[in-house]
Amino acid sequence: MKTRWKIGVSILIGTAVLVLLIYGSGYLVSLQDTALPELPATAELEPPGAVALGATVHARVRLELPLYRRVTAVELTPGTGAVALTPEATAGAWRWSHRTWTIEVPLRPLQPGTIPAGELRLTLSGRDDQTGQLTLPVPPLEVKALQLAPNTDLALAGELAADSTRRAGRLWLPVTVAVAALVGVILWLLLRRRRNPERILPPWERALAALNQLRSQLQHHELPLESAWVRLTDLVRNYLEARFQLPVTTRTTVEFLHELDEPDSPLPPPEKRVLRDFMTAADLVKFAKLPPDEAMILEATQQAEKLVLATRPEPTTATSGEGGAES
Rounded to 10 degrees, what is the CA torsion of 211, 217, 218, 221? Predict the structure, then answer.
């Protein structure tokens, strides 16, 4: 089940990244196309030919624009005897670096005969808020008069309204790409977090890092010497307790050193002597109010580092996150 889930996530992430790369590369290529598109000679009329008085005719034109351009405004000035309804600009098929746009303006003739040609004006967006203007003619309309029988009641014309079945601008592709990319990134982060859990440092690594930090603070005079002694002794006690499961933090120095003399003590004799000298010096500063000396505490820090290095497991056996199993 987990394998199928991982495969599904990988496919989803790969698809999202692929779509994003294709769309992004197409957009970058489209930026090189700075010329305005070529227009047809005139707009198309649908339906073609003569139309009945009061019928709706659509003036339509199709353009292929670079991805960075879009139609931002459409204005049609019809010939005398006709009115223009709400224009629509619809984004259509996507062809890598270009997209097809369909501009359509409904017209309604109000008188029979020939309606003169009109003019269609398009405004295109560009880079850095630079716009482009395009103009093309709309063919004349041939309007047939209504043929009515005598005494026929005429129905009132309905409200002039645009066809609501179309929408100005389809944003499905950018939205799909953005959503797919967002989902892909979230899933990738979750999967990466599960595969790479935060590593817990073993006691000897934590102790060595803390000793380096303490030495740096002493050298830069960022820590009072009395506080440095307290921190150093606590650091060594905590290390020994975590490393060997010894109750160091709950024992006095005398009690702890007495336990180290037992036959089952985990510390070898050389490290016992180092620890005894270190703990004795620390107690003299803490309890006997011996004036602390920077050189003295730096030497003690170095001795504590040697103690940690001497008691850490060999690299081939240090596999536990919390050293306590190796001794």
Answer: -170
